[in-house]
């Protein structure tokens, strides 16, 4: 079985984003970029499926400009076999990304498509679900456990207040939550090896998808700032303030 | 302009977050219809009909909708969509699972986690874990969106008598099957629903020391969380993580113990009403967002705090 993993290049989760002075967007100039953390979990899961013999090939896909090949190489270093990049501008909306991915999935015919549940930049949490809808295939979102058995996959999902397990007919779409696994670090030999792994290029034209959007970003503002409060000198003072001033205990 | 709101329920009770979602629909303006899709969900439909803000309750009562499987419910909603200008759901795992599917079937985008309505086509939503707020305009014919419940005051839940319409169409994709559900029954409240959260960071030193926080949490009826640093150090499991890559919490009281205040942690808790920080490093960034800061050794301060609660 082939597993396809879609990944996104995003701002590193340790970097504090700043809004541009003209409020047009956030400022990503000279900011450290990384593989989206949920996508890293998706890659790890696919590689584990290969290591346990469930999968025989892991293909990593990313939609964006040449710069996202850096993150695709990271995915290849973590154990993906080859890459496919669809050459577009950066920052496409979820629907466009899902349409392009759907075409790549039709070409590659994987048994399982694994994506992160959301990207930590746009925080949309949509692409996996949209991809599943466009392909008319079942979905297991926010997965904390994935078990393939024959032509079915059981996915345990993180839902509000607990866990839900569903059984999906494959091909199926899975999106990852935090508890699914803990991604490995890429070793130096694997980073070197990843540089020689194949990375193919496709265009939206070749896939027959017209990329456009009905969404317009009007402005981006920083959130209301939180003011630093006071320092208390003792536990007694803290308890007194919480009881009588803040009235929260 | 008519708006369809997806009711959040468990086939027995209408969940209160539905009232917050209806409030967002009211802010858009127009007639509001409420969809109750479930199985054996008559009591939910009855409760829904009492909400004065709702003009019509649509009830789809069938086994196919019992567990809110996205494959089935999304097709049901798709079939209804043509009559509506907006389709709204709460930012819960149920609607987040289902609505993007509806959007794709309708060939429109979705606006996630909307926190303010500027007009019928312009909305504010958080991006970068709430570190920036985007104002987005949608030209899609049908606007599909999830709504952040805490950003909207709930509408009245009683006093109305909406018309109830039964839907007979059954959408069963047949590609997914519910196996089981384990809803956590912990002594402590769930992290994202707790009104008080006590979290520990790398300063806790090891996993056993989290017992100090558990004791404080038990006295306060609080949930226990952790920073990513504490999770990465192996002190506690990942599901306790509060932060951009973990759970987002906004309790009335958040007590950060031995947490320095990395950006990714602050992103997950800075909407808390009152923040308390206990840390021995007085320059720790956590103090810049804390309402009450206590510079102290946590191994002395936390047991003392527990004793005085």
- What profile does the largest beta sheet of chain A have? 9 strands, mixed
The string of secondary-structure elements of chain B, in order, is EHEHEHEHEEEEEEEEHEHEHEEH
Taken as a percent bin, the fraction of beta residues of chain A is: 25-35%
Q: If you average the pLDDT of chain A, what whole number results?
A: 96
The gross shape of chain B turns out to be elongated
Query: Which class of chain A in CATH terms?
Result: Alpha Beta
Series of H and E elements of chain A: EEEHEHEHEHEEEEHEHEEH
Largest interface: A-B, 81 and 90 residues
List how many beta strands of chain B DSSP finds. Answer: 16
Which range best describes the helical content of chain B: under 10%, 10-25%, 25-40%, 40-55%, 55-70% or over 70%? 25-40%
- Gyration radius of chain B, to the nearest Å? 22 Å
Task: Summarize the helices and strands and which ones pair or pack.
The complex is a heterodimer of chains A (249) and B (309).
Chain A: E1 2-6, E2 9-11, E3 33-35, H1 37-51, E4 57-64, H2 69-77, E5 82-87, H3 94-108, E6 112-116, H4 127-135, E7 139-149, E8 152-159, E9 162-169, E10 172-176, H5 188-194, E11 199-202, H6 204-207, E12 215-221, E13 230-232, H7 235-245
Helix pairs in contact in A: 2-5, 3-4
Chain B: E1 2-6, H1 17-28, E2 31-38, H2 42-49, E3 56-61, H3 70-80, E4 86-90, H4 93-105, E5 110-114, E6 116-117, E7 122-127, E8 132-138, E9 143-147, E10 163-166, E11 176-183, E12 196-200, H5 210-220, E13 223-226, H6 228-232, E14 253-257, H7 263-269, E15 274-279, E16 292-295, H8 298-308
Parallel strand pairs in B: 1-2, 1-4, 2-3, 3-10, 4-9, 5-9, 12-13, 12-14, 14-15, 15-16
Antiparallel strand pairs in B: 6-7, 7-8
